[in-house]
Amino acid sequence: MSFLYSHPPGASQVGTTVTLARDRHRPKPLVSDLVLTCDFPDSERGAQTSADSARQNLVHQICMFHHLVPTSIIGCLDLQTHAMFKKFSHENINSKANVKSSSQRALKAKLVAQFPDMEPVVDQIIPKKAQLVHVKCQDRISLYTIDGKVMFFQHFDDELVPSLHLVHQFPQYFPSIKTDRGAIKFVLSGANIMCRGLTSKGAELPDEPMEKDQIVIVNAEGKEHALAVGKLTMSTKEIEEVNNGIGVELLHYLGDGLWSYHE
């Protein structure tokens, strides 16, 4: 099955062909090949990054609606990935320093403030006698490690974000969302998660509302362990009501540079 999309002015080609294969786990009657023309608002015309984002949104929505998964992408279509550790390596590290006891206590307090359920286990995560190391990286990214393993990270002075190694050890202490099966490949390539991947059959949002900018772990239909960590771009209520656009900005995912990092 192929879809042909027209690009707004500013894109590098006239059209993009995307070849898709039906998800065998969700059989539906075959439909004819379609040719779609995508119309973009004036605010997005002439902006390559906006065009890429709009195309990513459109392709994901069509995949979700028809239960399709992409098998090849031809032309200039770019399912842009924004996860900060996609190409992370030791070369991105600027310096390392031991964290003082007073700063360590402050980091513990910040973790508990962000994730209140963690309070009973925070001393297991950062033991009093353990040496926490601050690893300063390019782009104002900070890693906090114990025995060479990343426990959490931070961009500039923003919120602390748990690593997947920590999430897999203490999954019950972090807010979580679940994507449907069709979003898994997108997540594991570092793509942001669209709202429709969080509201369709197989996906799950928590009963208790979560607000915009909440750090969440990303589970997936049929998977035992979390695939990624991200940040809500809108509240869970808005995700359900709007059901369009990006719902979770991906920060860290299985297989990225941070997952592979060890001192």
From TrEMBL:
Record keywords, A-Z: Cytoplasm
A molecular function (GO) term: RNA binding
Matches recorded under Pfam families: Pre-PUA, PUA_elF2D
Superkingdom of this protein's organism: Eukaryota
GO cellular component: cytoplasm
Subcellular locations according to the entry: Cytoplasm
Protein task: Involved in translation.
PANTHER family reported for this sequence: MALIGNANT T-CELL-AMPLIFIED SEQUENCE 1, MCT-1 PROTEIN
UniProt name for this protein: Translation machinery-associated protein 20
Organism listed in the record: Yarrowia lipolytica (Candida lipolytica)
Source lineage: Eukaryota, Fungi, Dikarya, Ascomycota, Saccharomycotina
